[in-house]
Design goal:
Layout (H helix, E strand, L loop, with lengths): L2 H11 L4 E10 L9 E5 L3 E3 L4 H17 L5 E7 L11 E9 L4 H10 L6 E6 L8 E5 L1 H7 L16 E4 L4 E8 L5 E5 L3 H10 L5 E6 L13 E5 L3 H7 L5 E4 L4 H11 L7 E4 L3 H13 L4 H4 L16 H24 L15
Parallel strand pairs: 10-11, 10-13, 11-12, 13-14
Antiparallel strand pairs: 1-2, 1-5, 2-3, 4-5, 6-7, 6-9, 8-9
Helix pairs in contact: 1-3, 5-10, 6-7
Length: about 350
């Protein structure tokens, strides 16, 4: 999730002094992963690095820096969770603090623009040292890889728990992180009660959402940063233009439109998830119609209907939304496990996980 970028720019727009806190390196057990972020102003706090005493301590460091307004704009604090903070995790967390100023607007806007590309951007933060000025650089992944110094490479391979490394050439610590759009892309057809509830939930989760309906007046005035509204009379075109590996949920106000969208999706072989709102009765009726149109049974079987994680019962929109979100998160977790699995694994790995 990259809501921190918009929030940081919001603070700059309002001249609200703020400190960005990033989990830069995790050793052992910790409440959040490397890359997790929190933004702290004198009177407010956004996002989280795990709560508890760690977060309270980090917010205190940030506010002390805002009040004093002297010292470096970027620095590291290493906090042992057990001995120093009394947290049962027991690991060590290294936090990067960044006092944001108007001069930081450029790289923040570059990151936001870079999220329009699937490859995203690489952000590098050099803390500086003797004779070396601190710096922040944002570049495309291929440019960053070409410019990266071998001193930042981990000889044992990539370590997702460590974004902060010594740079022996420049003589300073450097944080290097990938800022990419989340690979889980969810396309929702329908801005009714369930669609509204589902977007509300997905707006807080690591995913990208395209929300489609012809009824422009049903969309709220503001949506979460990871949600894109498509008010269109040709929703079939959204299906045709969507990149491979997407998740699709059909929940419109019109069964005939639901059927047309389903038939359009059944033409594609690269869909990760295909959900249709409705009961078993609706599913049987649609299956009968699709078979009459010559659609193969194995294609029809891809439709998830009723939608939602099995065992979560209830017809209220909020309950359905939570059940569907759980189903999508299970799929996302399956993707992450496969991506992290060693390439030499002997057992074959399927491209998608069926909820």
């Amino acid at each position: 999730m990259h809501a921190w970028i918009d929030q940081a720019l919001w603070c700059l727009d309002r001249r609200q002094a703020a400190v960005l806190v990033t989990v830069a390196w995790v050793q052992g057990s910790a409440p959040r992963e490397a890359g997790a972020k929190m933004l702290v102003s004198e009177g407010h706090q956004w996002l989280t690095i795990g709560g508890g005493h760690l977060e309270w301590k980090a917010a205190g460091f940030a506010r002390a820096r805002l009040r004093a307004d002297d010292g470096p704009d970027r620095w590291i604090e290493a906090l042992p969770l057990g001995p120093a903070l009394g947290q049962c995790c027991g690991g060590m967390v290294h936090l990067l603090f960044e006092r944001l100023r108007e001069s930081d607007r450029g790289w923040l806007e570059a990151l936001r623009a870079g999220l329009q590309s699937p490859a995203g951007r690489i952000r590098e933060v050099g803390l500086g040292g003797e004779g070396v000025q601190p710096w922040v650089r944002v570049s495309a992944p291929d440019e960053a890889d070409a410019a990266a110094d071998v001193g930042l490479a981990d000889p044992s391979g990539p370590d997702p728990d460590r974004l902060l490394r010594p740079d022996p050439v420049r003589g300073c610590l450097t944080l290097r992180e990938a800022v990419r759009p989340d690979p889980l892309h969810v396309v929702i057809f329908g801005a009714g009660h369930v669609g509204q509830a589902l977007v509300h939930v997905l707006g807080t989760l690591p995913c990208r959402v395209t929300w489609v309906d012809a009824r422009d007046d049903l969309f709220p005035d503001a949506v979460p940063p990871n949600v894109l509204i498509e008010a269109t009379d040709t929703p079939e075109a959204v299906i045709d233009e969507a990149p491979p590996g997407g998740c699709f949920l059909i929940m419109t106000h019109d069964h005939a439109l639901d059927q047309r969208l389903c038939e359009r999706l059944l033409r594609r072989d690269d869909v990760a998830y295909f959900g249709l709102i409705g009961s078993q009765t609706k599913r049987r009726k649609f299956e009968h119609r699709f078979r009459a149109r010559g659609i193969a049974p194995e294609r029809i079987a891809r439709i998830v209907c009723p939608i939602g994680e099995p065992g979560i019962e209830g017809k209220q929109p909020a309950v359905i939304a939570v059940a569907v979100a759980a189903q999508l998160l299970r799929l996302r977790s399956g993707r992450e496990r496969r991506a992290a699995a060693p390439a030499r694994a002997e057992t074959p790995v399927h491209t998608e996980e069926t909820p």
